[in-house]
Specification:
Helix 1 crosses helix 8, helix 3 packs antiparallel against helix 5 and helix 10 packs across helix 11. With 487 residues, this protein is of the alpha/beta class. The protein is globular and about 80 Å long. The strands form 6 sheets. A 7-stranded mixed β-sheet has the order 12-15-16-11-10-18-19, with helices on both faces. It has a 6-stranded mixed β-sheet with strand order 7-6-5-8-9-21, with helices on both faces. A 3-stranded antiparallel β-sheet has the order 3-4-22. The mean pLDDT is 96. It has 16 helices and 22 strands. The protein binds glyceraldehyde-3-phosphate. Keywords: Oxidoreductase. Belongs to the aldehyde dehydrogenase family. This is NADP-dependent glyceraldehyde-3-phosphate dehydrogenase.
Length: 487
């Protein structure tokens, strides 16, 4: 509610995935602490958002769009002043490379400005009147209420702000819980939130999600749940809402994006894009390539070039120049990845690259696993880490069958230089996922493109314009013309 609380309660210690040498060996470094809200404090924050919204009568939801835009512009200027510190914290807190951390920050700022421009367009449109059958109508975009916003650890800034900004700029009020790995990096922005928005518009809560979020959902005071994270968590939270039919959910969830590398592919290009798509930020992207189908006639050549390219990738600390592979923030991740590899080996596959799957503290050396089949965890589970599962196939029916059976439906990539081959698959592929990439890796960007997914991969659509629509409702102000008001 626009105030920094003096904290006397429980705190959470944040250990960086970046390790330091100690007498006992390499150890994760303690880089800070943050307060752990109790359910009562979280509920107070929710109540502050409810009061600020005041059933649509509050200062913020009734404010002129141009004034809300001015608040967001002011916030963005202050955010830019904090760039160096935020980027440094992204590197230390989640182990993202310097180049990718800068990219994440810049992309977020570009997104905010693009959102402001798009809203100005929408606002101009709503000042136009439409006349039908003697009724003159103004179409407006109105807010939905109180939004609970939770972002992911892998894009703690970008993915959070691509929901948080459209939510508030449309006139909603908000409760924001940063991800467990990715909380400290928001600290430099809290003062900007406090000073740029009226009290209660943006309320930040820290703490253990499973201790505070369920009660917030059960209260029935949340109108919109926006979460970039796991389908399981999203489903559990939605069910807690007492009036689920009144809850709007805007969700970016699990994905297991496939690449299909046909016998007509440019192998070199396919290898480069597979490496980028599977291993950028160590494969910790919902948009990452997580399974590769390669036509059996080119599988040997593809694997040989893939091994070569993976062996050239540089491991290192996030701030080192040219580094591609960095420490993993989730302490249990290496054990899970090893379990997936072990399961694949027991079911007939091998790790085909040197050192694949080796670990040193929070580093995990990428593993190319071949030949993967449908008995393995790696066939279905979203590994969300540096493993490249490769499946040889004979007929296009096999990857298509995989996509149809999958519970995910975010993206697919197809690599082929035969335009007839691409054209004949495209109509089927585009009915399985929400984005088909031709001769390119899967990715969300540019952020102005619609970002969604089928099946368990998403609910609602993000982008610049789509997000503004998602966090609002079209309302009409309609006047029936009669002799008294026809002028
Ligand atoms: O994890 C999801 C991110 O939004 C990925 O974005 O694919 O454009 O890097 P990107």
């Amino acid at each position: 509610n626009g105030e920094m609380l003096q904290w006397n309660g429980d705190v959470h210690e944040v250990y960086s995935p970046v390790c330091v040498r100690t007498p006992e060996g390499l150890k994760r470094k303690l880089i800070g602490t943050y307060p752990v809200c109790t359910p009562k404090e979280a509920m107070d924050a929710l109540d502050a958002a409810v009061v600020a919204y005041n059933n649509g009568r509050g200062e913020w939801p009734t404010m002129a769009v141009s004034d809300r835009i001015a608040c967001v512009e002011n916030f963005t200027r202050k955010m830019i002043e904090q760039k160096d510190l935020v980027v440094k914290l992204i590197m230390w807190e989640i182990g993202k490379s310097y180049a990718d951390s800068i990219k994440e920050f810049d992309r977020t700022v570009e997104y905010i400005y693009a959102t402001i421009d798009a809203l100005k367009d929408i606002d101009r449109d709503s000042s136009r009147f439409e006349m039908q059958q003697g009724i003159i109508a103004q179409v407006r975009r109105s807010p939905l209420g109180v939004v609970l916003c939770m972002g992911p650890f892998n894009y703690p800034l970008n993915e959070t702000f691509t929901t948080l900004i459209p939510a508030i700029i449309m006139g909603n009020t908000l409760l924001f819980k940063p991800p467990k790995h990715g909380t400290l990096l928001h600290y430099p922005l809290l003062e900007a939130f406090r000073s740029c928005f009226p009290k209660g518009v943006v309320n930040t809560i820290y703490g253990r999600g499973n201790a505070i979020i369920p009660d917030l959902m059960k209260s029935g005071k949340i109108n919109v749940l926006t979460l970039i994270g796991s389908s399981k968590v999203a489903n559990e939270l939605k069910k807690l809402h007492p009036k689920i039919n009144r809850l709007r959910a805007i969700l970016g969830l699990d994905a297991k994006n496939a690449a299909i590398i046909t016998s007509h592919a440019d192998i070199k290009l396919a290898v480069q894009e597979t490496v980028l798509g599977s291993l950028s930020f160590n494969g910790q992207r919902c948009t990452a390539l997580k399974i590769i189908f390669v036509h059996k006639t080119i599988a040997e050549e593809f694997l040989s070039q893939l091994k070569e390219e993976v062996s050239k990738l540089k491991f290192g600390m996030p701030w080192e120049k040219g580094v591609s592979l960095t420490p993993l923030p989730e302490p249990n991740k290496p054990a899970y990845l090893k379990e997936c590899i072990e399961d694949a080996i027991q079911n007939g596959a091998s790790v085909v690259n040197e050192n694949g799957g080796a670990t040193v503290e929070s580093f995990f050396y990428p593993a190319i696993v071949y030949p993967v089949n449908n008995k393995m965890k790696l066939y279905r589970e979203e590994q969300f880490g540096p493993i490249i599962p490769v499946i040889p196939y004979e007929s296009m029916e096999e990857p298509i069958e995989y996509l149809i059976e999958s519970t995910h439906g975010q993206q697919v990539s197809i690599f082929s230089n035969d335009s007839h081959e691409v054209a004949s698959s495209i109509d089927i592929l585009v009915n399985q996922v929400s984005r088909v990439n031709i001769n390119a890796q899967c990715q969300r960007g540019p952020d102005a493109f619609p970002f969604t997914g089928r099946k368990d991969s998403a609910e609602g659509t993000l982008s610049v314009v789509d997000a503004l629509r998602s966090f609002s409702i079209r309302s009409l102000v309609a006047t029936k013309l009669n002799d008294n008001n026809k002028h």
